[in-house]
């Protein structure tokens, strides 16, 4: 879950992005909305569940260098709607 004991300050950013999640079979493209960013990670809203520890590739431009990330935590917000914390890899 989110907390204020971070290595780096997170800055608000509302931006739609596209990403692919690592999968054994295929690489589907998903859409998410970034909530905030730092040089080491970001928080994102997702319309589908992504498991903790899963690697994702970000296919959209961000104001940080973060093309690959690892899901550190996931919280269900509503049915089929999640918030996740990602660490840049």
Topology (elements, then pairings):
Blueprint: E1 11-21, E2 29-38, E3 41-46, E4 55-58, E5 68-78, E6 81-88
Antiparallel strand pairs: 1-2, 1-4, 2-3, 3-6, 4-5, 5-6
Structure characteristics:
mainly beta; 6-stranded antiparallel β-barrel; 89 residues; globular
Question: What's a quick, concise take on this entry?
Answer:
The protein has no helices and 6 strands.
CATH superfamily: predicted glycosyltransferase like domains
Query: How big a fraction of the residues is strand?
Result: over 45%
CATH second-level architecture: Beta Barrel
Q: What is the multimeric organization of the chains shown?
A: single chain
**What is the CATH topology?**
Thrombin, subunit H
> Secondary-structure element sequence?
EEEEEE
Q: What percent of residues adopt helix (DSSP H or I)?
A: under 10%
Summing up helix and strand content along with how strands pair, one would put the structural category as mainly beta
Largest sheet, in brief, is: 6 strands, antiparallel, barrel
CATH class: Mainly Beta
DSSP E strands, number: 6
Shape: globular
Q: For the largest beta sheet, what order do the strands appear in spatially?
A: 1-2-3-6-5-4
Backbone CA Rg: 12 Å
Number of helices: 0
Unreliably modeled segments: none
Mean pLDDT level? 89
Number of individual domains: 1
Describe it for me?
The chain is built from no helices and 6 strands. It has a single domain (11-88), classed as Thrombin, subunit H (Beta Barrel), CATH 2.40.10.220. By secondary structure, it is mainly β. It has a 6-stranded antiparallel β-barrel. β2 and β3 form a beta hairpin. The mean pLDDT is 89.
């Amino acid at each position: 879950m989110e907390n204020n004991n971070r290595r780096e300050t997170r800055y608000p950013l509302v931006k739609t992005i596209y990403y692919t999640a690592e999968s054994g079979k295929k690489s589907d493209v998903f859409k998410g909305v970034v909530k905030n960013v730092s040089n080491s990670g970001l928080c994102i809203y997702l319309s589908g569940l992504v498991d903790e520890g899963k690697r994702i590739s970000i296919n959209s431009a961000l104001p940080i260098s973060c093309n690959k990330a690892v899901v550190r935590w996931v919280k269900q917000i509503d049915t089929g709607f999640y918030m996740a914390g990602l660490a840049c890899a």
